[in-house]
Amino acid sequence: MGMIGGGPGSLIGAVHRLAAERDGYIELVAGVFSQDFEKTKKLGEELGIDPSRLYPDYIAMFKEELYKPEGERLDIISIVTPNHLHFEQAKLALESKFHVVCDKPLTVTHQQAAELERISKEFRKEFAVTYTYTGYPMVKEARAMVQNGELGEVRKVMVEYVQGWLSKEIESEGHKQASWRTDPSKSGKVGALGDIGVHAFNLVEYVCDTKVEEVCTELNTTIASRSLEDDNNSFIHLDNGAKGTLISSQVCIGEENNLSMRIYGDKASLEWRQMESEKLIIRYSDRPMKVLKAGTDQLSEIAQQNVRLPGGHPEGFNEAFANIYRNFAKTLITKRNGKQPTQVDLDFPKAEDGVRGMLFIEKALESNASGQKWVSLKQPELIN
Amino acid sequence: MGMIGGGPGSLIGAVHRLAAERDGYIELVAGVFSQDFEKTKKLGEELGIDPSRLYPDYIAMFKEELYKPEGERLDIISIVTPNHLHFEQAKLALESKFHVVCDKPLTVTHQQAAELERISKEFRKEFAVTYTYTGYPMVKEARAMVQNGELGEVRKVMVEYVQGWLSKEIESEGHKQASWRTDPSKSGKVGALGDIGVHAFNLVEYVCDTKVEEVCTELNTTIASRSLEDDNNSFIHLDNGAKGTLISSQVCIGEENNLSMRIYGDKASLEWRQMESEKLIIRYSDRPMKVLKAGTDQLSEIAQQNVRLPGGHPEGFNEAFANIYRNFAKTLITKRNGKQPTQVDLDFPKAEDGVRGMLFIEKALESNASGQKWVSLKQPELIN
Amino acid sequence: MGMIGGGPGSLIGAVHRLAAERDGYIELVAGVFSQDFEKTKKLGEELGIDPSRLYPDYIAMFKEELYKPEGERLDIISIVTPNHLHFEQAKLALESKFHVVCDKPLTVTHQQAAELERISKEFRKEFAVTYTYTGYPMVKEARAMVQNGELGEVRKVMVEYVQGWLSKEIESEGHKQASWRTDPSKSGKVGALGDIGVHAFNLVEYVCDTKVEEVCTELNTTIASRSLEDDNNSFIHLDNGAKGTLISSQVCIGEENNLSMRIYGDKASLEWRQMESEKLIIRYSDRPMKVLKAGTDQLSEIAQQNVRLPGGHPEGFNEAFANIYRNFAKTLITKRNGKQPTQVDLDFPKAEDGVRGMLFIEKALESNASGQKWVSLKQPELIN
Amino acid sequence: MGMIGGGPGSLIGAVHRLAAERDGYIELVAGVFSQDFEKTKKLGEELGIDPSRLYPDYIAMFKEELYKPEGERLDIISIVTPNHLHFEQAKLALESKFHVVCDKPLTVTHQQAAELERISKEFRKEFAVTYTYTGYPMVKEARAMVQNGELGEVRKVMVEYVQGWLSKEIESEGHKQASWRTDPSKSGKVGALGDIGVHAFNLVEYVCDTKVEEVCTELNTTIASRSLEDDNNSFIHLDNGAKGTLISSQVCIGEENNLSMRIYGDKASLEWRQMESEKLIIRYSDRPMKVLKAGTDQLSEIAQQNVRLPGGHPEGFNEAFANIYRNFAKTLITKRNGKQPTQVDLDFPKAEDGVRGMLFIEKALESNASGQKWVSLKQPELIN
């Protein structure tokens, strides 16, 4: 695997590298970690990468690697750059016949995202989008429960992703991540919605195994000097008729990384909270509340396959992230061996999920601009 | 005190009686507990009430009691009947110069509620509306913190009141409370919104010490056969510019009585959950999370005055309810003695809070009917 | 009912009065609330008690009331005085043919307690000891589960009762309750063990429905100036072979009223915490954790009978206390009517439980004095 | 680094490898993973290890590696074999001038452990013992708080480590780990005490930064057919005069990996639970409860240095484990560079901690055999 971005000081770059190499399926052997080639070389050395595979820019990397013989050339490009760079990098990677792992939000516009999906299909390359939170085993358990009908018909959904780190105007105090997240030239048309709202959206569609049909959204910019929104309240309608709310905000002072989801069916309901990621609470009208725990024997196949330690030995964010890379890698390997990947292997967020995220962003912006009109996420033009 | 309603088998009647007599300020000495006089007489006997003060109907009670000499006549009428009866009973009680405690929602229309408020002022009678949940000491602490500026400027509010008891169509199976709650002829124009939504609304206005300025509401009727809505998602805007959501539902299967509130300021935030009513969580951007506990020394005057037991000796719903009656009674007594009640004594929900609840209901219905347009709760006509 | 003790400013007196009158079975009609008759008269007036039934001392009260005709005389004496007074007051009450409710610890010595039990049997009078915590519905549920074999054979027990209020030497700063609790002339031979240790002991024997067979105890006096112990660590062996620990302390700084219990059988285990009194957690080796909630339909008959509100409407300490009085009163009434009380009615702590508590205290003292030898609680002399 | 043990299917072997390589300081380059050389070769290949450095036995590995030139030879031997093999392997590793990381309990007897400590000093080799749980950042925060006097004088300690996985006789059903854990020929003289009791013991001594002075222990063998104890209740006395309890058990049915600790000082107390490892609760007598969270800014230097992700992104067991390896590696590197390691780097469990664990085991056995006499852990012979 070769990486673009994730240079010195990048937290998410380190998270990607750790996740990729975690299970022994992927090895990081090349990279363009920074626009500054010296920084790339320095980090590459620290990471023990062959200096000949450290490149000054991604075009050079693709060109060099493209013509290496099978077995020596890169299989995968991991893209960990700011949002506005994803499109051209991922596009060229696919066209250069690399499989791609790309951070979210996938692109800056929905159209770009759809284009990437199209290209990945055209070139028959796998494309993973690192929506971390659907990598958690108890989220997979939640989806399995919905699919198995254990909740009955889903009626109501409440999803929230609230953080507090942008509750003060830290972008003007030299906070690096705050600066690019709140800068439209790097983040695109949205701030918090692209950073965390899309995670919440992906969580809903993944767990409910259905699509969001339409949204009614209010976006707020709490800090007056900011160009991008930092707070979102949305009503949502799902394809199956369920109603709900999707709230995301980065100005909820004191909140750390509080993503949570409650799903109410006509038979039972579930609750999951990322900060207590190993619990899944199930409630009934006529039976006591049940608390499922990661690492125990009482879970579905898919949840068990995405846990590495026995119950009571906390796993967390890094393992959820690693699950994406692992399932992605196992899919690649299985296909290379001419076999059909299992549902467990195929269970990672793909280009189409990235496209959905971008669609949500655009439609939420549209609803907000209209003064909270309902806007459909259906795409008739794609039916053909 | 005399009571109307709360006959044999009425849970809320028993709660009112217990709350009223709890602190020794109020004694139940008369009543019309049921439309069936025999039932009134039977319950009256059980409660040890002088048979001569058990009446066949409330008009008889008012008439008889009205002409008794001061000291012997009733001071207070407590109204615990279904919603559609509140207006005429409360109106006549006020006109008969009784102080009134009335269950919520106050009336069936906003106009009726406003009329009651007007009459209570005209006749200089105290009027309490039993919004139970603002009776909790930690809710009072929350309000004190907002008032003292400990949260800074309030920016975002998330209030929810979710229950699951109407998630199945139990009204058709002879469930008594479900039957009248879902029957427009008894509940008025709304179901869940009147039963629990108004509590959530009262909680927001009380704790934030400001008004909800406008709402954008989606009401859902989850069970097809039902005439009244059982689920509500609302966006709200507060007078001070804060944004937020107010969600209430009775079809959240497995939920018991899950009322919760999170308020985010620019300095700190707070979280309160009714089912863990004795905790109040405060979060900061730069200090560890703090958990305040009822019954401890570290609370404001008002919270301490509304607790009866030391920390760690759980109090709950009954005590919150009793706080309303106690503060109401202390206000009456203090005024009767020609003194000015303290802020602590005056801290009970009043007719104006009942009016606000009815206004919210009407505006939420209007917003829903318009397909989620924003509807203002400002009332220019009342300025004169 | 007449009360001895519980004068102005006594928290526990108010708790007893509220609990006694809560369910309409008992009425407080007489009292000796204080050694100072003026104080008794003043409080009596506030409580609306007929002045002729306020007495200067308990002997006077018993004498006067004893000769009143059936129906006019007191049935029950409630004793809410410091420990060292319980014995003589309760003894005379029984001999005067009153039923008795007495606070815990029952007496100052085990012998006194056994004497009270004997007298109550001789005079056929009911005798309740207010071990509050076994009045909680979920504690009753726990006992029912053990009795029904849902945990299998009980193997291990962990009970703790930790508070922090004596972690500083507040008795020398005029703290009234701290003063008598730490004064051997008023509390007897033990401090914290008598105040809270006996609650933990009662909880074990009640829930496990078996006896503690032997103890191995270390008592500590953390504050050097104190005459009585303020901290206890005990190993316990139960009659059925189970092993465990019983820890109680009043120097656990920051703890409020933290009584908890975990019981491990060979099929399942349970956990209950007084400060979250409405939950009962059940754990299995092969099934998900279950959380039972007070007020829901899924509980045993006995738990359901000891709850007054639906799930999610928090009840607490006052209701647990009231359950003792209510069940005691229902037993009296049923017996008076010549019927056999049900198991639900009979479910209140009795003189024999008070005796067990005193026995535990004496044996724990003996074990501690011996340098942590095991001391048996078996009483061969009682077999005859 | 070379590894002994941790062959195919070994969970703890994988945990060690992941932890060792996590931060880029250590690379696994050699190994004897199994007694079956074929298995070693197979796993070695999977792990990408040069086949020439896969060895049939550890003596061969040491011999070969010993004579390689500096920079090519192994620095560290990681020992992940069953307990009874640790001593001879670690001894020879030290004598062959390798630094050693060894799993716990360090050896089978206290004498062996002391011998290893002596040898490591003689040969000036670093020696880490993988007591995982003191690797958690919030445990380090707890220790820093005790050291800084934030709790005041420590008075009372309550430590527990309870699991349920041995609550049924699974060793007779072919459960591999259960088989060797309950087999004296592989585990030594103790079962659960060596497996988990020593963790609890290490936690106490680490956080309180003092020694356990004496113990009074009851060991139980709950499953009759078992040769080794599976349950422990101990009283402990610390050097500073604090009293407490240390409970460990593997027959607490339904418990996962429930290690917890409460420490009460005269100023404040703390509570930590491994299964919610990122929280540290601080309680005061006169201030609200505080909840410290891993990954936030409000922690001590040492806690912040042992966290890799921002607050709210759960880390867990693997990161705690990695902290041991990382600090160990940084100490080695710093010393190799002729510098003095910082306190942060030196913060990993060492041979002396392994010795303490073995001493605890022996003294606990002695106390139990004596019928719960107090047994001292002081070692006068070591003073010279």
Strand content of chain A: 15-25%
Content-based structural category of chain A = alpha/beta
Shape of chain A: globular
Output the number of helix runs of chain A.
Answer: 12
Largest sheet of chain A: 9 strands, mixed
Order of helices and strands of chain A, N to C? EHEHHEHEHEHEHHHEEEEEEEHHHE
Largest interface: A-B, 41 and 41 residues
Counting DSSP E segments of at least 2 residues, the number of strands of chain A comes to: 14
What is the secondary structure topology, with strand pairs?
Four copies of one chain form a homotetramer.
Chain A (H helix, E strand, L loop, with lengths): L1 E4 L5 H11 L8 E3 L4 H10 L11 H9 L9 E5 L2 H13 L3 E4 L7 H13 L4 E3 L7 H11 L6 E9 L13 H6 L2 H4 L4 H17 L3 E9 L10 E8 L4 E7 L8 E8 L2 E6 L5 E6 L4 E5 L7 H5 L11 H20 L14 H19 L5 E2 L8
Parallel strand pairs in A: 1-2, 1-3, 3-4, 4-5, 6-9
Antiparallel strand pairs in A: 6-10, 7-8, 7-14, 8-9, 10-11, 11-12, 12-13
Helix pairs in contact in A: 1-11, 4-5, 5-12, 6-9, 9-12
